[in-house]
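User: Some background: our group keeps a shared notebook of sequences we're curious about, and every so often someone picks one and asks for a predicted structure to add to the entry. Today it's my turn. The entry only has the sequence so far, pasted here. Could you supply the structure so I can complete it?
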Amino acid sequence: MSSSSVTSETSPSTPRSPKKLRIYSHSALLYWWPVWVVGYIMAALTYYQGAELEIGDSMTKIHANSNLGLIFFVVLFLVILVTNFSVRGLASGIIIMGLGLTFVLLLYFNLWESVFGWFISYNIYLNVGAYLWISTVMFGMWVIIVFGLDRFSYWEIDPGQLTRDSLVGAGSKSYTTQGMTLEKHQDDLFRHWLLGLGSGDLQVRTSGATREQIDIPNVLFVGHKIAAMQRLIAEIPEVRAV
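Assistant: Of course. Here's the predicted structure to add to the notebook entry:
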């Protein structure tokens, strides 16, 4: 989970990779998939196990167990918290151990009901329509942004060159990869591993007279991407005679 870095070397013996590589930086909505997944699960449970109630002139289904609504809102709250507050490295482990210790102590001293009894007494009931509407809107936004809008701009790596490009007409900028340093960050346990399933943040430092630091956050499968990127930036580009 600690960051790792590597500096490119231009060596003729480096194996060639003829393909280009594109790196996409995603928005924080990438990590919101548990909301619509849990929402659809709760909608299915409510539809098949819920009781029909007449509200006004229409019939609706509501599950008798209010824990379904509680679980959905807890997942929603945790996703909002994780995607807005980054907890990296040792701090994430301390938080997990602290939460685990608190849970064990509350159970051991029989304080669970007295601490949370009043709060849990206010039950949460959602019908099938509520789960479906929230989940479908969230799923639609997730697909449009992750597989659409996030791909309008990208980083393209060729042998010996890194280029920032865009599909909407914005200007592009290229960097030589000689002496370039790559740094991978996957030290946020909650965001990168639990929600991102192996995502991470990529940091690029260029060399030369005008050195720059380029931050590329929320890259899916960053470990695989950085390995391919290392091979490409280490290659010496072919020079064709005119």
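Suggested note for the entry: Residues 44 and 188 are 32 Å apart (CA to CA). The longest helix spans residues 128-147.
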